[in-house]
Amino acid sequence: MTITKNQKPKTKNQPLDELDRAILNEIQSHFPIGSRPYAEVGERVGASEEEVLARVMAMAEAGIIRRLGANFTSRKLGYTSTLCAARVTPESLDHFVAVVNRYPGVTHNYLRRHRYNVWFTLIAESEERLNQILEEISGASEVLEILSLPAQEVFKIKVDFQL
Predict the structure, then answer these.
(1) Alpha-helix residue ranges (DSSP H) falling in 30-72
(2) Fewer CB within 10 Å, N- or C-terminus of the chain?
């Protein structure tokens, strides 16, 4: 693979070049844990630390990279989680979403076309804390109903998109 260095990073509407693709392939599941991770990625793809960091930042600003962070298996860390389905009136949606998003244990929060129109996942250090947060959300918002749907069985699928 020939990678052209020092090209201007692409915007959301421009195609990715080979170096952008190589960087994305590396950081999906092989992001290094160390004091200079972008230097390590640079060594792997044949670019400088500065160029890798600039391209990652540009792809994030363009919306190509939505999130860069670790994924943890919360159960192995002693946490519990649940999927929640909420019925919220259209007039209360913005306020409800703001209340839900205040909690750091909320990992996803999506609007759906369904009677239960807001779905979110919640992680907490105990089932008691999880229930307390759901009560707080109910008390601080005009939600009609929240269902807590804890997983009976967990299926994790590791997905890498080869670019």
Answers:
(1) 37-45, 49-61
(2) N
Cβ contact 146:138 at 8 Å: yes
C-alpha 160/C-alpha 143 separation (Å) is: 37
Is the pLDDT at 162 greater than 90, yes or no?
Answer: no
| Per-residue CA distances from 54 to 8, 16, 23, 68 (Å) | 9, 14, 11, 14
**Among 107, 119, 106, 108, CA closest to 145:** 119
**Torsion region of 95: left, alpha or beta (phi above 0 gives left; psi -120 to 50 gives alpha):** alpha
pTM: 0.63
Nearest Cα neighbor of 27 from 46, 8, 41 is 41
Name residue, tokens 């949606």.
93
φ, ψ dihedrals at 52, nearest 5°: -60, -50
